[in-house]
Amino acid sequence: MRREEVAQLSGVSVTWYTWLEQGREMSLSAQAHARLATALRLGRAGRAYLFELAAKWDPDQPISETDHVPSSLLACVDLLTSPGGISCGP
Q: What pTM was estimated for this model as a whole?
């Protein structure tokens, strides 16, 4: 896709999209990043990476990711006593 097409599909100006490509410091909302991810047809991993780079929360992701974490793992994390030490068991 051309730069102009991506900008139009994501609802930002071509200038803003160009600045984003160049890595310039700018403030783009999480919703604009979501539209950009959709316009670029990013998969789950690509979308997550885009939001990680932008240091933004993905508005299409649930707030709590702990629903997918086994309770045994969460219990183990609760037992952490120091950053490098774990005591999972007696």
A: 0.62
